[in-house]
Amino acid sequence: MNGKPMSLGPKPARNTATELWVKDGADKPEAGNPWTARLTIDVTPALRGRIKIIAFEHGTTVAEMLRELLEREFDQPTGTSR
Known about the structure:
Blueprint: H1 16-24, H2 45-57, H3 62-73
């Protein structure tokens, strides 16, 4: 460094649409969101790789694919609430 102060320039203009999107938190789990509990499992690297490839081939995320699989596998019995 040469000891000269660095100029950062003017502050960028605020983008209110972006700020509203961030503050909205639509992607964040909340009380009304059914995906608020986190589940952690250990799998082999090979299985993780296969899961990721299959999700990519189906055009979805691993999380979405596994949620759908768990919903199908552990279907709610008739007459019970979640």
